[in-house]
Write a structure and sequence with these properties.
single chain; alpha+beta; 22% helix; 38% strand; Thioesterase
Length: 137
């Protein structure tokens, strides 16, 4: 089984992210996950695939572990778990240092940028998101 290439995405916390309780509002995590997943796509996919495809979120399941605050240094680590047809499943872990703030499972649909219809991702594009298979001896 191939191992996914993790993608680290630094998160900037804005004053608008802070809620009435003084920590990051839960809705901001969705914004961060979307930005992190799309950045992962742009970092690893070839330019022609990026130009031809868009991603639409289908589902997010968030487990909140600890609150984040305005001055925190926060990183989202994104890993694609599975790509099948036009769908991709991602895991995103949001951390402050070693502390896990939130874990997010999300599923996405790839759509053709022109027709806005679901679009399968080519196998050679998918392979860019995983470490190369070890050569057999």
């Amino acid at each position: 089984m191939k191992q996914a290439i993790p993608h680290r995405f630094p998160i900037g916390i804005d004053p608008d992210d802070i809620d009435f309780m003084g920590h990051v509002n839960n809705a901001s995590y969705l914004k961060w996950v979307q930005a992190a997943v799309l950045d992962h796509w742009r970092a690893l996919a070839p330019a022609d695939a990026i130009a031809r495809h868009l991603w639409v979120a289908l589902k997010h399941e968030i487990t909140y572990r600890k609150p984040a605050f305005l001055e925190d240094d926060v990183i989202a680590t994104v890993i694609v778990e599975k790509v099948q047809g036009a769908r991709a499943c991602y895991e995103t872990v949001i951390r402050r240092g070693e502390e896990v703030l939130a874990e997010v499972k999300s599923s996405w649909c790839c759509v053709d940028a022109e027709t806005m219809r679901p679009s399968r991702i080519a196998r050679d594009v998918i392979q860019r998101f995983f470490f190369p298979a070890p050569e057999s001896e």
